[in-house]
Design goal:
- This protein is of the alpha+beta class.
- It is built from eight helices and six strands, in the order αααβαβββααβαβα.
- Helix 2 crosses helix 8.
- 25% of the residues are buried.
Length: 204
């Protein structure tokens, strides 16, 4: 699918179930652009992630320009400068991270750990994304016990980057979603923003 076809179909999709189906079909379903014609490599790439976190293949997605071949928000083609964005949907892994967050919160209450002013801002942002069902690893607090999980997360996905895995010479980043519904809701909300941008452009 080309960018202009994507935009035309998105503009025509009605709010509600039709927009959700558009999200599932184009943003989540099927072999990503970066693995076009390489289904076995895509399987092997996902298997690395599944083995690391004890999750199922159905819980690993490539999203963004690596999936589509272009960025509908930036209106740029996928290139060597692009990142590979992975979305993991795992209620079990989500609960593991939530449990670490609970322990951190009790440490904060007991004044066993503390945040500087800029760390409080990041922590609030982390909690806000968490309310949407998304763990943004870059916002995970640099405090125990969460910092250990964060470091292991980035170490692992760095080990998949820059020609060290089947995906090729790209940076691999990943986020964690609480459920399929949370991933679809967040992705569909992004589609609404893109559609609003297209409407503004058409009116100008």
């Amino acid at each position: 699918m080309k960018l202009e076809d994507f935009e035309a179909e998105l503009t025509a999709a009605s709010e509600g179930e039709e927009l959700t189906e558009f999200c599932r079909l184009h943003l989540l379903h099927g072999t990503p652009f970066v693995f076009h014609g390489r289904d076995a490599d895509f399987y092997s790439f996902k298997q690395r992630i599944c083995a690391q976190y004890g999750i199922n293949h159905t819980e690993v997605f490539i999203v963004g320009s690596g999936k589509l071949g272009f960025s509908p928000l930036k209106k740029t083609e996928f290139s060597l400068d692009s990142d590979i964005d992975v979305a993991i949907v795992s209620p079990a892994l989500w609960e593991q991270v939530s449990d670490l967050g609970r322990k951190l919160e009790y440490r904060l209450r007991a004044s066993e750990v503390s945040f500087h002013k800029h760390q409080w801002k990041k922590y609030h942002d982390y909690l806000r994304y968490g309310a949407l069902g998304w763990v943004r690893p870059d916002l995970i607090p640099q405090k125990p016990p969460m910092v250990e999980f964060k470091q292991q997360w980035f170490d692992f996905f760095n080990s998949l980057s820059n020609d060290r895995s089947e995906v090729g010479n790209y940076e691999v980043t990943a986020g964690l979603f609480r459920s399929q519904t949370h991933l679809e809701e967040y992705t569909t909300d992004s589609l609404r923003k893109i559609r609003k941008q297209l409407e503004v452009q058409a009116a100008s």
